[in-house]
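Team,

Forwarding the record for the chain on the shared tracking sheet. I've put the sequence and predicted structure together so nobody has to dig through attachments.
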Amino acid sequence: MSFLFFVGFIIADVMASIWFGKMVGGWMLLLWFVMAFFVGRQIMRGATKELAPQLQQAQQGQTLDPNTNFLAAICQALAGFLFILPSVLTDVIAILLLLPPVQKALQGKMTQAFQKRGSNFMMMGGLGGMGQSPFGQPSPFSQENPFGRGRVFDGEATDVTPTTAK
């Protein structure tokens, strides 16, 4: 079902971009996409100033504090990403994500998701736990590694070219 929604969204997005391009012209649409790219990049830069320290703490095993600034920064980062994508519908969704009433409505849902999942919300695979691999095997650098702590084999190599006897 989600795959069909995704394909339908892409088709609707292409059709909306073609329609908008016919309305304003192809060069203006291209200018729109370029300007949206730079706006999205700036929005993402601003959002990462709030997100980066807390995500680093989450990788070290500390719990995330889903305060309103953090959740607003998530909305801004998502809006910046959507602005970077060259399409009309994603730009409309990005503009909606930047509106304060929409952010407040989404913050309630995000707070519930953080509370439901607890401290493991941002930990995917081995990102959160030191010594874990996203593939379910111990990391070669961890204490649980059955092969020891990263054995190093030292050696030398020389290039030998065979000579043919004449």
